[in-house]
Design a protein that fits this description.
Helix content: under 10%
Strand content: over 45%
Shape: elongated
Structural class: mainly beta
Oligomer: single chain
Number of helices: 0
């Protein structure tokens, strides 16, 4: 069984006991979070919601919050002597899917 969840403006295909990195949530480590289900795949077939599947939910446990690797962005304008380098680290939340309820 798998489910397609929606969080942070993105959709993720998840299964039981899977660990995924998602956009940062306002939750601490060892908290439990619930996600809305967009589509649900079972042995009987696929159930797609309009926009969500009624009565289906996915629960997950927050493992940790963190930041990704640094990405360096350089801007340059020729003949102007203008150069700039900026860095960015995207925050994320690492979660483990504990159950999928249909």
């Amino acid at each position: 069984m798998y489910a397609v969840i929606q969080t942070g403006g993105k959709q993720y295909k998840v299964t039981n006991d899977e660990v995924i990195f998602i956009e940062k949530l306002e939750a601490e480590a060892n908290d439990t979070v619930t996600f809305d289900v967009v589509a649900l795949g079972t042995d009987d077939g696929i159930k797609v919601g309009t926009p969500l599947v009624e009565g289906a939910k996915v629960t997950a446990e927050v493992i940790k919050n963190g930041k990704g690797k640094k990405i360096r962005v350089a801007t340059y304008k020729p003949k102007k002597g203008e150069k700039r380098v900026k860095g960015h680290r995207q925050p994320y939340t690492k979660v483990k899917i504990t159950s999928i309820e249909a």
